[in-house]
Automatic annotation (TrEMBL):
Keyword line: Cytoplasm, Hydrolase, Protease, Serine protease
Residue runs in coiled coils: none
Molecular function (Gene Ontology), one example: ATPase binding
Keyword Hydrolase: yes
Protein name: ATP-dependent Clp protease proteolytic subunit
Length: 280
């Protein structure tokens, strides 16, 4: 970083706890939104944060590799992401925060959850007037008994406080006000983000473009929904990939393995996702 004195966020995972994508953010995400122009010093974050079942998504490893390739020169980071793995997002934020040259963040679509934390690493945060920032408390899936759940809730508090500290440092708002916004899962459009100090300028219209392939965009969003459902239902990676291939080909096997937890709910959700892949 060059002009921002932002806090580092300590990261620590916990057994039986997984971070996940907010369904509301996923449904607001339009994967077809892009920056109209990019160059060799541009890093794009246009997917969920963290690995999915298809070995896709945006990871700290990928961002580190991109920064090594670019070197110590100014970088643009283009974001259109519904968020995802909180721990991976915090790691990416820390990596960008330590970059020695200027970072310009461009939110062309949505920067939700973990992606909004990543956006705060910019020296200059630019957002589309039609774009959104979404901030909320850490969203995880955990397993265990009531004592485990209490422990997980207590364990999450420092992460929420750390994220609130990042937003507060970037915006100038009090950490108490930020915490209230996080509690309410707050969406801010471009102008609102600017007014709150969470962005610096609005992008001009010619800096954002939308792909004409709505079918491809819907399919990508459906893949991410299925990824979430598969993880929650305990479906293996191989089974999830087979189900997705079957859905894309119009097959009839779109149901979870009978032994998987929540299999009935998973199968019902798949029926809705299937329609996104069928010809109109």
């Amino acid at each position: 970083m060059t002009i921002r004195n932002l806090p580092q966020v300590d990261i620590g995972a916990r057994p039986a706890v997984r971070s996940d994508v907010s369904q509301s953010a996923l449904m607001r995400w339009s994967p077809d939104v892009r920056a109209s122009q990019v160059d060799d010093a541009t890093i794009t974050i246009l997917d969920v944060i963290g690995h999915d079942f298809w070995d896709e998504g945006v990871t700290a490893k990928r961002i580190s590799a991109a920064l090594r390739r670019i070197g110590e020169q100014p970088v643009s980071v283009v974001i259109n992401s519904p968020g995802g793995d909180m721990f991976e997002g915090l790691a990416i934020y820390n990596i960008l925060r330590e970059h020695k040259a200027r970072i310009t963040v461009k939110v062309v679509g949505i920067a939700a959850s973990a992606a909004s934390v990543i956006a705060m690493a910019g020296d200059d945060i630019q957002i589309s007037r039609a774009g959104f920032l979404m901030i909320h408390n850490a969203w995880v899936i955990a397993g265990g008994n009531r004592h485990d759940m209490r422990d997980v809730a207590a364990w999450l508090e420092p992460f929420d406080e750390a994220m609130a500290g990042v937003y507060a440092a970037r915006s100038g708002l009090s950490q108490t006000d930020i915490a209230a916004m996080m509690d309410a899962e707050t969406y801010l459009n471009g102008q609102q983000a600017l007014d709150k100090g969470l962005a610096d300028t609005l992008l001009s219209r010619d800096e954002v473009t939308v792909s004409p392939d709505d079918t491809q965009a819907s399919g990508l969003r459906a893949e991410r929904r299925m990824d979430i459902l598969a993880r929650r239902a305990g479906v293996s990676r191989d089974d999830a990939r087979a189900l997705m291939a079957d859905l894309k080909s119009g097959g009839k096997r779109g149901a979870a393995p009978t032994g998987a937890p929540e299999a009935a709910e998973f199968a019902a959700e798949l029926q809705g996702i299937r329609g996104l892949f069928q010809p109109k």
